[in-house]
From TrEMBL:
Gene behind this protein: sbcD
Pfam families in alphabetical order: Metallophos, SbcD_C
GO MF terms held by the record: exonuclease activity
Nuclease SbcCD subunit D C-terminal domain mapped to chain residues: 268-356
Entries under InterPro entries matching the protein: Calcineurin-like_PHP, DNA_Repair-Maintenance_Comp, Metallo-depent_PP-like, Mre11_N, SbcD, SbcD_C
Family designation: Belongs to the SbcD family.
Upper lineage: Bacteria, Bacillati, Actinomycetota, Actinomycetes, Kitasatosporales
Protein's job: SbcCD cleaves DNA hairpin structures. These structures can inhibit DNA replication and are intermediates in certain DNA recombination reactions. The complex acts as a 3'->5' double strand exonuclease that can open hairpins. It also has a 5' single-strand endonuclease activity.
Entry keywords, A to Z: DNA recombination, DNA replication, Endonuclease, Exonuclease, Hydrolase, Nuclease
Keyword Hydrolase: yes
Quaternary organization: Heterodimer of SbcC and SbcD.
Protein name (database record): Nuclease SbcCD subunit D
Domain Calcineurin-like phosphoesterase: 1-218
Length: 388
């Protein structure tokens, strides 16, 4: 069976206020053309179909167009909701849409109820694990302290129990939206650390033939059978060096992977990060290759130059982001507070503040109190997003 694995469309998202809708529509066209040209048997979309819980109308229309075009091809499609999606909104009409071969899996209670497709070698069971927010689903899965590993582990127990009850030789594919240990994040994935450690070990998915992951935006191989497709487009400058693609997976008659090919996605415009003094950036011949790219520029001038954005735009008309990071000696008192905090998470910053004020860092109990406080704030943000 040939399975096309994609995820993280983020329909409706912009790149530094530049609409990506046209590029997203081009990707959908490329997806449909690939399904047709490569004789794909099933498409899987592993979450974050939309960029936010209440997407703009144009994004909804593009999603509707994508579903109609895939249904017209007669190729089954399985989709799950991600942490950016509203599971309830995305899942509206799921049972009705099933009849058209479009299978939406957004309800955590349905993790153990697969979409079963067949080829000449028998059945393949597709299990959809939508994004499982620990604070919201721990009761459903009966876990006392609902961290990410606990709730995904409980969901996979349901998958394995259902698979064990099926005929011998039934092959299996799991769609999941999660941060799996060993994956490399970028700047454009929303934080999912609420409920404790965000990452889960890949071993939690043991017992199935292929795991189609979503959430991280870089295409990557966690193991032969556990892979991220990555997003089809770059949504932050941290993805400037990404190769955007989909996985074309061939599942053999005994569940073995007989093929795993990366299918490149269209690139609307390359991204580039440039850094240096303004006069150097404007004259450096090595930067000619970036003149038509989307640009993130960081100026290192000791004194902020006049009209830097306008001057940059003369050479780099698609400059989207401008930052200042003056070259100064480390002991310079003017080194910014932001620089001192760079690379530190909320927990570390809070612990440093306690140390600064009191003269001694927090003990283990106090660190737990701080961690619980941050988790409570993040959980409250998630609940408000879900309620929108």
């Amino acid at each position: 069976m040939r399975i096309l694995h994609t995820s993280d469309w983020h329909l409706g998202r912009a790149l530094h206020r530049v609409s990506m809708l046209g590029a997203q529509a081009e990707f959908i066209g490329h997806l449909v053309a690939t399904v047709r040209a490569r004789a794909v048997d099933a498409v899987v979309v592993s979450g974050d179909v939309y960029d936010r819980a209440v997407p703009p109308l144009a994004a909804v229309e593009l999603y509707d167009d994508a579903l109609h075009r895939l249904a017209d091809l007669g190729v089954p499609t399985v989709l799950i909701s991600g942490n950016h999606d509203s599971a309830r909104r995305l899942g509206v009409g799921a049972r009705l849409i099933d009849r058209a071969g479009i299978h939406l899996r957004t309800d955590p209670a349905g993790c153990g109820q697969p979409v079963v497709l067949a080829d000449t070698h028998g059945d393949v069971a597709f299990y959809g694990l939508p994004y499982l927010e620990p604070a919201l689903v721990k009761d459903e899965f009966g876990v006392e302290r609902g961290g990410h590993e606990a709730v995904i582990g409980a969901a996979m127990d349901r998958v394995r129990a259902d698979l064990a009850a099926r005929a011998d030789g039934t092959r299996s594919v799991v769609l999941a939206h999660a941060f799996v240990t060993g994956g490399a994040p970028s700047d454009s994935e929303r934080d999912i650390t609420v409920g404790g450690v965000a990452s889960v070990p890949s071993g939690v998915f043991d017992g199935v033939d292929y795991v189609a992951l979503g959430h991280l935006h870089g295409s990557q191989v966690i193991s032969e059978r556990v892979r991220y497709s990555g997003s089809p487009l770059a949504y932050s400058f941290s993805e400037a060096d990404h190769r955007k693609s989909m996985w074309l997976i061939e599942l053999g008659p005994a569940g073995e992977l007989t093929g795993a090919e990366r299918i490149d996605c269209p690139v609307p415009r390359p991204l580039a990060r440039i850094r240096g003094r303004l006069d150097v950036l404007l004259d450096d011949p090595d930067l000619t290759r970036h003149e038509q790219a989307w640009i993130e520029a960081t100026l290192t001038d000791a004194v902020r130059p006049d009209e830097p954005m306008a001057r940059l735009a003369e050479r780099f008309p698609h400059t989207l982001s401008l930052a200042f990071d003056p070259d100064r000696a480390p002991e310079d008192p003017d080194v910014s507070y932001a620089q001192r905090l760079k690379g530190r998470d909320d927990q570390q910053i809070a612990e440093d503040f306690v140390t600064h004020v009191r003269g001694a860092g927090p003990d283990a109990r106090e660190r737990d109190v701080l961690r619980d406080a941050f988790d409570a704030v993040r959980a409250d943000d998630v609940l408000r997003e879900v309620a929108r």
